[in-house]
Amino acid sequence: MITLGEYNTLKILRETDPGLYLGDEEGNDILLPHKYKPANYSLEDELEVFVYLDNEERPIATTLKPYLTINTFGYLHCSDVNKYGAFMDWGVEKHLFVPFREQARPMKVGNWYIVYMYLDELTKRLVGSSKTNNFVSNDDVTLERYDEINVLVTHITEKGANVIINGKHKGLIYNEDIFEDIRSGDTFVAYVKKVRHDNKIDVVLQPPGYKSIEPNANFILDELKAAGGFIGLHDKSDPEAIKNELGMSKKSFKKAIGTLYKDKQIIIKDDGIELVE
């Protein structure tokens, strides 16, 4: 079966003027235009291609890598808006259509949006939606504390960074746990800090608890070396000064320098911390 909106591994059946025809084991075939064919190939070779609909709504194969696949989220640039809706650049020739009814707020050309792509059952076309809450749910959460997860940052609020977890749950990274610049559209590996009684999920960028001490300690060692062996911060320093200089909370800083001190890698002085030579 050739699946729309996904990568398919298909066999080269024949070569024609428009391009290569690829097929599956069920006898279905699809065109891969000449501009996408590999430099070297033979009949019966298998190719991994992405399948979508061309400008005439016909299934077509491409070796281009889209920014998202069916039933997933992506961070897309709005290339055009007309009386029907918005059109997003998603890495293939034909732009992804987002109807007005699927826009969380009116889209504007040049802006970037978190978009979910799905198959419209009525038209059988791939369409996008920026109403991301319709495609995530925390009703059935099986995640546990310390679990490693993949997150996509949707937007930043006064509390912190809202994220989509593993493409299906909502979560939040509180400001106090953000030690680096993050923006909407960023994706990275993170960790479950806590699953609350109402299934809200707190997320951190480093393993929670004692597991986060080691990365922070290593980070401070690197900063000490870069600063010539001394940083004018200590366990009684102002929390804002610590966050501004090192990008971490005072609590994390104190834990990290405590570890370094116990390992005899630093000296804690009245005016700062010093690297032991």
Automatic annotation (TrEMBL):
Pfam families, sorted: S1_2 (PF13509), WHD_CvfB (PF17783)
InterPro entries: CvfB_fam, CvfB_S1_st, CvfB_WH, NA-bd_OB-fold, WH-like_DNA-bd_sf
Domain Conserved virulence factor B-like winged helix: 220-275
Boundaries of every Conserved virulence factor B first S1 domain copy: 4-63
Coiled coil start-end: none
Gene3D superfamilies: Nucleic acid-binding proteins (2.40.50.140), Winged helix-like DNA-binding domain superfamily/Winged helix DNA-binding domain (1.10.10.10)
Family note: Belongs to the CvfB family.
Annotated protein name in UniProt: S1-like domain-containing RNA-binding protein
Organism from which the protein derives: Patiriisocius hiemis
Lineage of the organism: Bacteria, Pseudomonadati, Bacteroidota, Flavobacteriia, Flavobacteriales
